Amino acid sequence: MRWFNPQSALAAVYVMILSLPTSEAITYSPIKPPSYPLAVRSPYLSAWIPGNSVASLSSSRAQFWAGNDLIWSVTARVDGVAYNLFGVKVPLSGTKSGTVTEATYTSTHSTFTVQAGSRTFTLDFFSPISPKNYLRQSLPFSYLTVTVAAGDSSSVQIYSDLDHSWVGQASDVSWSYSTKTTTGVFQIQGADASTYSENSNGQALWGSAVYATRPAGGGSLSTASGPSASVRQSFISNGTLSGTHAEWTANGVVGFAHDLGTTAKEVAVTFAVGHVREESINFLGEAQTGYYRATYADTVDAVSHFLDDYSDASEESVTFDALVQSTGISSYGSNYSDILALSTRQVYGGIEITIPNESLDTGTTRAFIKEISSDGNINTVDVIFATFPIFYILSPGYLKLLLDPILQYSGSDGYTKEYAVHEIGASYPNATGHPEDGEEMPIEESGNIIILTYAYQLATGKTDLATTYASQLSQYAQYLYKNGLYPTAQLSLNDALGELANQTNLAVKAAIGLATYGALTNQANYTTAGKSFAEKIWSDHLGTDAAGTRFLIQYGITPWFLVYNHYPDLLFGLDIFPEEAYNATAAFYPTVRQKAGVPLDGAIGWGQTNWQSFVAATVTGSARELLIKDLHAYVANGLNSAPFSDRYWVQDSGQYVAGDSYSFRARPTLGSHFALAALGGANTWDY
Ligand SMILES: *[C@@H]1O[C@H](CO)[C@@H](O)[C@H](O)[C@H]1NC(C)=O
Ligand SMILES: *[C@@H]1O[C@H](CO)[C@@H](O)[C@H](O)[C@H]1NC(C)=O
Ligand SMILES: *[C@@H]1O[C@H](CO)[C@@H](O)[C@H](O)[C@H]1NC(C)=O
Ligand SMILES: *[C@@H]1O[C@H](CO)[C@@H](O)[C@H](O)[C@H]1NC(C)=O
Ligand SMILES: *[C@@H]1O[C@H](CO)[C@@H](O)[C@H](O)[C@H]1NC(C)=O
Ligand SMILES: *[C@@H]1O[C@H](CO)[C@@H](O)[C@H](O)[C@H]1NC(C)=O
Ligand SMILES: *[C@@H]1O[C@H](CO)[C@@H](O)[C@H](O)[C@H]1NC(C)=O
């Protein structure tokens, strides 16, 4: 029980008034998104802040993708007065709040400008995306650079801390501190947690959180770990920390203070935040570890290298951001580039690049993708399908890295079905095989594997995947040929619909899968087979209404369906569906648009941004304009706070209003948003 202390209660009220956000306008550019990525590099390093919390950044906490709080704070002192800039939910007395004036994002940076007394600070949260540089991409760290802009000559100190919320547990935690030359490194480790296990929010319970920095701009660095209030108080009072490193305590933090002295110049200090797991993935009983461990086996070396790499990574990010921006603009204007820039970190932050833990052999590089929030499956084939347009233009090598473990597993004795597997494990990071009672999507995944293999081959010019797994690919093509035109009752990737027979969109996948196999193997009879499926589905009205104006969800059964599986027809130039089908859907979808967009089918009130984006690429004219505009309006509507949800309500529905997101969050499937851009060509981002 706590004693009520009226004096501190009064002080708390006073502090609350001081820390209320001012009404001064904040400039959000390009838009205020549902959530800003802060440190988004892996399924377990995934820190965000809701767009609507930015106005109160000083007291708003970062959140793990699932929405649980992460303690991560920044406070700056200007001429002895402490200003909380970020994440201080309970300000200590005597501190003030910085005022946010600007918030921006690019594909790799989220940046906030905060006024604190006479000085202006920027907090630049930078998660590199370097998909062709596996070392840089695999480092499980993210940068926070705090810059004080040039100004009056004042004395400036910058403080930041974090706690055990980053390791997903609230007891049995240990802290350690080490140095490498001038770099200070805190590690926070949960004890006795079983390897490969997660808490209920999806946080890794093994491995450790890392916070590191080094002195910059001629300043000096001090450190401390201990109870949050006392560590923060010593910074507030003195501008430095005691250097004492206490044992872990429940309300404790590990903190750094940079003393920049009296300066009128611009000075920047950079922190590295991370989450490392030595054994990162269990692939069929064999531990995999991060690719970077081939070069930096030790965590302190790895994070020290990450800080060394800052200027190169930063330079690359400028080029990368410009490419996303210009690709978006040249494909469909600035609304489209706003969507692409917001999508990229979420895609690459759902993927890890690994090597075998035992051999550290970079010749056996693999990639694993987590079906974040929808069920946690690992290397779900249809999640890779949703994501593939971004790989196709930007990093086609990922298709091989992701498919290889799937094909290796499904070609082994551990998997005996004649059709392609749905995923290689129910729970990331356990890639230990498809469970007996797992989801089966026979037509869906057999078509997807063929399409993804061809996307890789077309984009890279490499035939290795198709050659190595030739017999499996042939088996899937046979399966589609035999079973694809009249699919039995089964799931498609739109599994919320349940097991339906004769699903038009599945038959379309079979048609495209067959034709793609024909292109992959130079066997015209498969192309002909795909074309004859397409003729039956569209021209003979098997999968359309009687007048041939729209696709239906099932043969002869309404409602209409937002068929998107012919997207690869256009992307690969297969010419399987007639132009008439494309024209008809372009004319039809605008007529069934609801308040906030086109739903997935005519019987439901929600839509999926992935499939809206595929369809935006298959239609032209006003239908395309509408789909992109609705997607932009959804992201910019200010109603949501979850990391980009790829499913949302397009009409008011019970407790939801049109434009509200619908349960999914932070899924790496957003590569689908690049479908339109990918029509511009494969592997075009050579930088
Ligand atoms: C992965 O497998 C291990 C060992 O069976 C288990 O302890 C752990 O909970 C599993 N992880 C998940 C996320 O289910
Ligand atoms: C400030 O520094 C002085 C001298 O090192 C120390 O005695 C004092 O405890 C510090 N104040 C706080 C609040 O840590
Ligand atoms: C992973 O590699 C480290 C370093 O060689 C080793 O200590 C550890 O036992 C390995 N883990 C497994 C599961 O092989
Ligand atoms: C699938 O459609 C065909 C053609 O309309 C029909 O003959 C068959 O009965 C349908 N299958 C199922 C399971 O409904
Ligand atoms: C295509 O031709 C090959 C070689 O003649 C044959 O093995 C295969 O079964 C044919 N496939 C189809 C779908 O007709
Ligand atoms: C499809 O639409 C385009 C553009 O309006 C038109 O030029 C073309 O003739 C149409 N094709 C068919 C088959 O209707
Ligand atoms: C961009 O999206 C907004 C909705 O966020 C919409 O109002 C505007 O018309 C769109 N601009 C274009 C050129 O489509």
Protein model, in words:
A hairpin with a 2-residue loop joins strand 2 and strand 3. The protein is an alpha+beta fold and 687 residues long. Helix 10 (470-483) runs antiparallel to helix 11. The protein has 2 domains: 16-301 and 312-316, Beta-galactosidase, Chain A, domain 5 (Distorted Sandwich); 365-678, Glycosyltransferase (Alpha/alpha barrel), CATH 1.50.10.10. Mean pLDDT is 95; it is low at 1-22. It is built from 17 helices and 28 strands. The strands form 6 sheets. A 9-stranded mixed β-sheet has the order 1-9-10-11-12-19-16-15-14. Bound molecules: 2-acetamido-2-deoxy-beta-D-glucopyranose (7 copies).
Task: Describe the secondary structure blueprint for this structure.
Elements: H1 6-19, E1 27-29, E2 35-42, E3 45-50, E4 62-64, E5 69-70, E6 72-78, E7 81-86, E8 96-97, E9 99-105, E10 109-116, E11 119-126, H2 134-138, E12 141-148, E13 154-162, E14 173-180, E15 183-190, E16 208-213, E17 220-227, H3 228-238, E18 252-263, E19 267-276, E20 281-283, E21 286-290, H4 299-308, H5 310-348, E22 351-356, E23 366-369, H6 381-394, H7 397-410, E24 430-431, H8 442-460, H9 464-468, H10 470-483, H11 504-521, H12 524-539, E25 552-554, E26 557-560, H13 567-571, H14 579-588, E27 606-608, H15 609-618, H16 621-636, E28 647-649, H17 675-678
Parallel strand pairs: 1-9, 7-8, 20-24
Antiparallel strand pairs: 2-3, 3-4, 4-5, 6-7, 6-13, 9-10, 10-11, 11-12, 12-19, 13-18, 14-15, 15-16, 16-19, 17-18, 20-21, 21-22, 22-23, 25-26, 27-28
Helix pairs in contact: 5-16, 6-7, 6-8, 7-8, 8-10, 8-11, 10-11, 11-12, 15-16
Bound molecules: 2-acetamido-2-deoxy-beta-D-glucopyranose (7 copies).
